[in-house]
Amino acid sequence: MKNVELFNKKKVAIVGLARSGLACANLLHGIGAQVWVTDAHDTDSIRQNAALLHAGVNIELGKHSKDFLCGKDLIVVSPGVPERALPMVWARENNIPVVSEIEIAWQLCPATVIAITGSCGKTTVTTLIGKVLEASGRRAFVCGNIGNPFSGEVEKMREGDFVSLEVSSFQLEQIKTFKPKVAVILNFSRNHLDHHKDMQEYLDAKKRIFMNQTADDWLVLNANDPVLKSIAPESAARVSYFAENFELSPNQAAVVTVASVLGIDASVCSGVFRDFKGLAHRMEEVARIGSVRFINDSKATVAESTVAALRTVQTPVILIAGGRHKGVAYETILGAARNKVKEVIAIGEAKDLITKALAAELVVSQAQTLEEAVRRAFAKARAGDTILLSPMCSSFDMFRNYEERGDAFKTIVLDLQKNI
Question: Which range of residues forms the domain containing residue 125?
Answer without folding.
Answer: 103-275
